[in-house]
Amino acid sequence: AILLGIETSCDETAAALVVREQSGRGIIRSNVVRSQFEEHAPFGGVVPELAARAHVEWLDHIVAQALAEAGISLEEVDAIAATAGPGLIGGVLVGLTTAKALAASLGKPLLAVNHLEGHALTARLTDGIEFPYLMLLVSGGHSQFVLVRGVGEYERWGGTIDDALGEAFDKVAKLLSLGTPGGPAVERMALAGDPRRFRFPRPLLREERLDFSFSGLKTAVRLQAEALAPLSEADVADIAAGFQAAVTDIVAVRSGQALDRFASELPGVVPQLVIAGGVAANRAIAAALAEVAKIAGARLVVPPIGLCTDNGAMIAWAGAERFALGAVDRLDVEARPRWPLDAPDMRIARDAA
Ligand code: ATP
Ligand code: MG
Ligand code: FE
């Protein structure tokens, strides 16, 4: 089937055309993403109202470009998928309403996709990975471990109790005046710094639970920066390096524990760990995860970074996987600001298939 996918839940306006072959193999025919850097840069964070307006302004063009690049006409599309949540509700409404209008006018089925399911299933599109596997989602809005048993079948094993990891990178970048987006800026500075000069806390690490907490760490970084102010270039680099070393430790230790749990709950199954979300671009964290996976005898899958961050292909693909199982959504389906992956309505009614 040929799916058009639309993503507007945060600060990227995105559309893609993805083909899912009978065999289950996926092919990305186009994947157009417009990030709203300029709109939000003056505010040091995403402004929901501005995001929604930019989606309204750009989405039609992005969809047209995705169709043109794929060489596929709207009539040839088999179903329309759009993010229906979770996310900034104004933006979600823009994408979902556009998808409804297209579905209604073309007489094609609509798939209302959970954005997190898009992240969760991407590794099947890029690497053809089989269920079950563990996903570590680390982005600007989410940090969680999810056991992916099948399409619509998710178990949340833990997650952040305060800030997301990408958010922590962004906040540290802001207090070190490194600009946006914060993650890459902190990573660049950290390369020049000494990670041992400051030993920042590793919250929750001694506890036996698969949760994260990054807000105390962020406060420790702020207090250190204030104590040293005015900061020299070396101070900034050392703080960035110390922060990155702390979060790398946290993510590595937790992922090791999560893989241990995988081994004990799914004996005889080769453990697989999939990374999703923009923080996957961080080389220190990726290297640490590779090490952890090796020790656990696990397969590690890191999709290309353009498919780890928000994009339309992951929404088209999640829609295609659901569509293949007979799932379709009604045109009056609601947009949802919150929608956990383990919500009961994620499951596909098997009699629909
Ligand atoms: P959502 O959480 O809804 O998926 P998002 O747009 O906030 O949306 P992504 O687009 O997946 O998330 O990723 C952006 C986040 O990833 C930002 O917080 C950014 O700082 C972080 N990030 C990007 N590159 C790096 C890097 N090299 N190191 C650390 N963090 C990074
Ligand atoms: Mg984003
Ligand atoms: Fe996302």
TrEMBL record:
Q: What is its EC number?
A: 2.3.1.234
A GO BP entry is: tRNA threonylcarbamoyladenosine modification
Catalytic reactions on record? L-threonylcarbamoyladenylate + adenosine(37) in tRNA = N(6)-L-threonylcarbamoyladenosine(37) in tRNA + AMP + H(+)
For the ligand (Fe cation), the binding residues are H115, H119, D310
The UniProt record lists the Gcp-like domain at 28-317
Any GO CC annotation of this UniProt entry: cytoplasm
Q: What class of enzyme is it?
A: transferase
Keywords, A to Z, come to: Acyltransferase, Cytoplasm, Iron, Metal-binding, Transferase, tRNA processing
Q: What is this protein called?
A: tRNA N6-adenosine threonylcarbamoyltransferase
| Protein species of origin | Devosia oryzisoli
